[in-house]
């Protein structure tokens, strides 16, 4: 099972690596779909990270 990447920069590095790798294996239309999905995943992961930070900040304020 793959591990979660710890930061946005790690995910960006991983996305760049995946982009280079997929260029040699997928046709243009498939690559475009994959890149769109990768962008959605990155966006959702960023939203999760933001929510986590918000909840942590709220918890710290209550203490």
Any overview of this molecule?
By secondary structure, this protein is mainly α.
Task: Considering the chains and any ligands shown, give keywords for the structure.
2 helices, elongated, mainly alpha, single chain, 81% helix
Give the topology, please.
Blueprint (H helix, E strand, L loop, with lengths): L7 H16 L4 H35 L1
Helix pairs in contact: 1-2
Question: Concise description?
Answer:
By secondary structure, the chain is mainly alpha-helical. The chain has helices at about 10-25, 30-60.
Please state the overall shape, judged from the principal axes of the Cα atoms.
elongated
> What is the rounded distance between the termini?
36 Å
Average pLDDT level? 81
Q: Helical stretch count?
A: 2
Q: How many strand elements?
A: 0
Order of helices and strands: HH
């Amino acid at each position: 099972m793959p591990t979660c990447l710890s930061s946005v920069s790690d995910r960006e590095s991983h996305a760049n690596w995946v982009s280079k790798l997929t260029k040699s294996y997928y046709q243009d239309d498939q690559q475009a779909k994959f890149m769109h999905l990768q962008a959605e995943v990155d966006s959702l992961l960023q939203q999760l990270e933001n929510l986590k930070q918000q909840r942590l900040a709220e918890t710290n304020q209550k203490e």
